[in-house]
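Sequence in, structure out. Go.
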Amino acid sequence: LVADIMHKKVPCLGRPFQLGMLYDMRRDCLIPGLTLWDNNKLQKHKNVIPKHFTQMEVSTSDSLEDKAASMNISGSLKLSVLSGKVNVAGSAKYFNDNKKSTKQSRITLKYHISTHFEHLTMDHLDHKSFQYTEVFDSDLGTHVVTAVLYGADAFLVFNRDLDSNEEKTEVEGSFKGALRNISCYGISVEGGASMKLNENEKAVTDKFSCTFYGDFTLPTNPFSFEGAMDIYKQLPNMLGEKGKNAVPLKVWLYPLAKLDSKAAKCVRDISNSLITAVSDVIESLNNAEIRCNDLAVDTAAQAFPAFHQKIQELKKKCNDYKLDLLKKVGSLLPLIRGGQEEECDLVDLLKHHEESPFSSTELDQWIKIKQDEADVLKSFLEKLECPAPDVYKSIGKVFAHTEDVVCFTFTSLYKPDPFLDYLINYTDEKSEKRYKGKREKPESWLTQDVGQRMRKTLKLFNGLKSSSKSNNTKFIVVSDYNEENPGACIMLYRGECDDTVCFIPPSKPICSTTGAVTDSSVTVKLSPACESTVKRNLEYKMEQEEEWKCQSLQHKEDEVTLTGLNADSMYEIKCTALDILGKLPVTSDVITIQTPKGTYPPTDLTHQNSSTRDTSQPAAEPSTPINDNSPSHVPGSKKHWKSKNKHDTSEQR
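Output:
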């Protein structure tokens, strides 16, 4: 009877199957309370055959396909389980246990044992033997259970998080070696396993935690490798005498339509290609959530709430979309199997998915962009030599012990993400029609130009920090949206001023000696000072001297006459521009001039007695920083961040 080609084998997955029970293959559900025979007749004519078999498997894969294979879930039953149409229990709950991180090592040990096999005799399928023929008219079930295999399954799932310097294959190989060495593969029906681990194996296994999924009633749940092995070696004895605690593992189903043509039947099953396609879509959405989990605990996400929030939003929307998609799949399955709908409806559903922002191509692209951004942010935090910004620390607290605060500001983390907004609106659309908003593609704020700007800002910030010797100036890292300065900029908080200033270094000044020259004086012309220049000094010395003399300039002064010079002497002249902090002076090229001999009337300097020489060195003393009376911001500069307490900050000490 069981060998009949009309029979269909189905794993029980923790469901309470019994001989003679009806099953609806269209909905993959049991029909309790209906049968063709009463219990006395079933028990009197069933055959029971001992079926002792034990098997162990070790797997390092966590894919849906491999888990389904290890649980004998095939065909469209996999879609029923995925969509929640089949409520799994016992060991079958393992199917829904997914890894949470790509940096997670997972090894699964499966234990399978069968005890006995029950089946109906051929006499049961004789029309004269049916006691409740109204079952054929009920349209509730499509099959009847004619055989049941009893036993128990268990899955011991070992997990551990990998360190950044560890290789997954190496760790998993060591763990599998430890499993072999404790002779678990030799466990017998009577139980018993040798727990002999050397120090290296114990060091490997101690780092793994354990989750148990089984058809056994345990005295306590194991959490460690050692506890898991203690439970594992007791599993055969937990089935009780003659397997009285065994559960249904697999059933054989016979179509009712073969017994009576009036009975309901399963018209068609879902093609394997469609089953694989749907499974692949769910797998890709699961993987997107896993990668979001990794990004959410990355340095960048932990440091910047704006970055973390975007990752969490995508993860949530992926999960919402996945559940909605599975709900639609689950509603189509019985209709297609029952012949009310065609497979093309499922094909259309997959087509709509591929055209949605949740397609694997676009999700992968967005997550890859965020991973690249996270890597750059992490690199910058390391080079800033600053702890990750603390979301609970405010600028006001930093001001409690300082006068000036210099902020390296990541300015694009709060920038709106059009693709993420489109994706959110796509899932929030309540009508049956698909969202019709403008289609957006994943894009990063981190362009090549923005990256170059950020590197320049980093160099400038570190220069300010290294040149600062004042305890009244603190250097911190913050994040705030500033559309005018994409990527990063330096913001200044000064004294009690509530406003902030975007720090821009002074432009390199230009000085020339096209003015009048005498034996004791020279007129120097200067380029106009830029807005970020708050003070300028004109410095000069005789060529053979070491020390520079300094003359302060007015802010708008563009022509200066140096007097008291020696006749017939070569002089070097340069101009130094100072920023608002006075920490990074910017110096012009050095120009040289020869004063005439004796007493001569003023003459225009010619190219024959002047030249210029470039210098990359900042001006030495007396280029002094601005005093406490310096202006708190540059006239005409842009202002940002009106509140001191809205930013995520980290103090640089």
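Check: Confidence is low (pLDDT under 50) at residues 188-193, 604-653. The chain has three domains: 8-266, 274-501, 511-613.
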